[in-house]
Write a structure and sequence with these properties.
Oligomer: single chain
CATH superfamily of the largest domain: Vaccinia Virus protein VP39
CATH class of the largest domain: Alpha Beta
CATH architecture of the largest domain: 3-Layer(aba) Sandwich
Strand order of the largest sheet: 3-2-1-4-5-7-6
Helix content: 25-40%
Radius of gyration: 19 Å
Number of strands: 7
Order of helices and strands: HEEHHHHHHEHEHEHEE
Structural class: alpha/beta
Length: 297
């Protein structure tokens, strides 16, 4: 029986999340038995990918720890029970932000918290329940779409002084209720923390394999904690072009650099109507190294 979808379709309100168009990604990866995701982000695509094996990667230690707790049979239940008793209050947010910043500071005193070469630190930092709770609070009690950016632990408390839009407390409670379903979905996944290029180097070239790539976009992606400059975008395009048997599905904003790096005579382009964090229209594209399964020929 198909696992019920969560109310909230992402584990955190990640900046640039693909919640609205994630189903299209799943459809384009249909038939893959193994799927690698080098930039996990909000993980909303996991709900739509039918592969037997899904390997999710991200450099963001807070995010990977949260995902590991969600997928843990024991810790995931404690995580939910603790959060459903939380009061939606600015003091909760302030305390959680302070603890997350302290954690980063303590690790940075040894070596950069987000340094991919600090692999020995991963073995030292075990899956941590309180850390996951703090990060969840930081993401869902603060203003939307700061998760993943350099402002995620400095964002203000989310509340409204008028009746326009949704209620922030309702949003938080909906995210908490969604943990029940997310626990089941995340058990399908394996989580790793490495540089995206190291991850791609380990992805095998084979029929039945798929890779979903959703990197920081040129321009807006500069707000991420781990942005990608033009040189890295070129390196990524060259690496992805080496896959032929493995199906590659990549998501970007339509941008001149992306048009240059993924020419339409070599890649299939699917234009999509995305939305920005401010709910404005944004021209997105899915780029595929083969024919589309959702577009008519």
């Amino acid at each position: 029986m198909q696992t019920e979808l969560p109310i909230v379709k992402s584990i955190v309100p990640w900046y640039g999340s693909n919640r609205m168009l994630a189903a299209r990604v799943g459809a384009e990866l249909k038939g893959c038995g193994w799927v690698g995701i080098p930039f996990m982000g909000s993980a909303c695509e996991v709900l739509r990918i039918e592969a037997r094996t899904i390997v999710c990667n991200d450099l963001h230690r807070h995010l990977i720890n949260l995902a590991r707790v969600l997928s843990d049979c024991r810790l995931g239940l404690e995580f939910y029970r603790t959060l459903r008793r939380k009061t939606f209050h600015v003091d909760e947010l302030d305390a959680a932000q302070a603890r997350c910043k302290t954690l980063e500071h303590n690790v940075n005193s040894i070596q950069s918290m987000f340094d991919v070469h600090a692999s020995h630190l991963d073995a030292e930092i075990e899956t941590d329940l309180q850390w996951a709770i703090d990060y969840f609070v930081c993401c869902w009690m603060s203003r939307a779409e700061c998760a993943g950016t350099d402002k995620e632990f400095n964002a203000g408390f989310s509340h409204r002084w008028d009746a326009a839009g949704g209620d922030s407390d309702v949003r938080f409670q909906s995210a908490v209720k969604s943990i029940i379903a997310w626990r089941h979905w995340m058990r399908r996944c394996t989580f790793v923390r490495s540089d995206a290029f190291d991850f791609l180097a380990k992805c095998k070239e084979d029929t039945g394999h798929g890779i979903f790539v959703d990197p920081p976009f040129p321009g807006p992606g500069d707000k991420y904690k781990h942005p990608m400059n033009v040189s890295l975008q070129r390196d990524l395009a060259r690496r992805l072009a080496q896959f032929h048997l493995t199906r590659v599905v990549a998501r970007f904003y339509d941008h001149p650099l992306i048009r240059e790096l993924y020419p339409a005579d070599k890649w299939t382009w699917i234009e999509q109507a995305g939305r920005t964090g401010a709910n404005k229209s944004a021209p997105e594209v899915l780029i595929i190294n083969g024919k589309s399964y959702t577009e008519e020929a």
